[in-house]
UniProtKB/TrEMBL annotation:
GO terms for molecular function: nucleic acid binding; peptide chain release factor N(5)-glutamine methyltransferase activity. S-adenosyl-L-methionine binds at G117, T118, G119, S120, G121, E140, W169, N187. This is Release factor glutamine methyltransferase. It catalyses: L-glutaminyl-[peptide chain release factor] + S-adenosyl-L-methionine = N(5)-methyl-L-glutaminyl-[peptide chain release factor] + S-adenosyl-L-homocysteine + H(+). SUPFAM superfamilies: S-adenosyl-L-methionine-dependent methyltransferases. CDD domains: AdoMet_MTases. Methylates the class 1 translation termination release factors RF1/PrfA and RF2/PrfB on the glutamine residue of the universally conserved GGQ motif. The keyword Methyltransferase applies. Its EC number is 2.1.1.297.
């Protein structure tokens, strides 16, 4: 049986046709199988035989299952979040929404925050970590996703400040009893129905959290007209967008009587629209 170092080389080679981050994936899976950190693996702090679970974990990745689902966790904005196939995997690009919110509310800390389609709770929990006096609501229609978001809120010490509730913006009257908010965040479905997605996304992440009609704008058409009724005076809303949707989403915001500003991610792509 190969040692851990040799097994990592072999695993990276096997994953090279499946993943653009083959070596990283192999290291993360090995650390998980060993019950140690990736740093321990990188620094050679573990020796001995390759653990028995490693091959099964590797096979899952070879079948395009995302590493985050295999590990059951995903980092986001300095937080360690639980994830499952019930929720989208939080991505670094979505941190643009939080950074844009931080800048927009500089000197004006929000008291009430709403996260529409909260999923894992990533945006809500990150925002509450920035503003320790704020309270927030995560609206989510999926029972399974609400369970994940609740676990993440509790694990991050936010049980008293984060309330995860059922709600569906495709149903009439969904805004009733919510009240008004100083900050509204949303990462709604925005992928075109026939978009060419990687197998790890299309086959494994929840379709109801990805797809939004032929042009990817169906959910914005429902959400954005509701924003003026949900925003408190002087409030700010930020929605994540696809790279080609800045103009269309900004136009929807203006049609709703809101000013719109596009923010860009670290790669220089349009990533979210700020509305006020």
């Amino acid at each position: 049986m190969p040692d851990i170092r040799a097994a990592l080389r072999e695993a990276a080679e096997r994953l090279s046709a499946t993943s653009d981050t083959a070596r990283l994936d192999a290291e993360l899976l090995m650390a998980h199988a060993l019950g140690v950190t990736r740093t321990d693996v990188l620094l050679g702090r573990v020796e001995g035989e390759v653990p028995a679970p490693f091959e099964a974990l590797l096979q899952r990745r070879l079948n395009h299952e995302p590493v985050a689902y295999i590990l059951g966790t995903q980092p986001f904005y300095g937080l360690d979040l639980v994830v499952s196939p019930a929720v989208l995997i939080p991505r670094g690009d979505s941190e643009t929404v939080i950074e844009a919110a931080r800048i927009a509310r500089d000197g004006r800390p929000p008291a009430r925050i709403l996260d529409l389609g909260t999923g894992s709770g990533a945006l809500l929990i990150a925002a509450l970590s920035l503003w320790p006096e704020a309270e927030g609501i995560g609206l989510e229609r999926s029972d399974s996703a609400r369970e994940v978001a609740t676990r993440n809120a509790n694990a991050n010490g936010l049980a008293a400040r984060a309330r995860i509730i059922a709600g569906d913006w495709t149903r009439p009257g969904w805004t009733e009893a919510l009240g008004r908010f100083d900050l509204i965040l949303a990462n709604p479905p925005y992928v075109e129905t026939d978009a060419d997605l990687a197998p790890s996304v299309r086959a494994h992440e929840p379709a109801e959290a990805l797809f939004a009609g032929p042009d990817g704008l169906d959910d914005y058409r429902l959400l954005i007209p509701a924003m003026p009724g949900l925003l408190a005076p002087g409030g700010t809303a930020l929605v994540e967008i696809g790279a080609a949707q800045g103009d269309a989403v900004s136009a929807l915001a203006r049609d709703a009587g809101l000013a719109a500003k596009v923010h860009f991610d670290l790669a220089g792509r349009p990533r979210c629209v700020e509305m006020a």
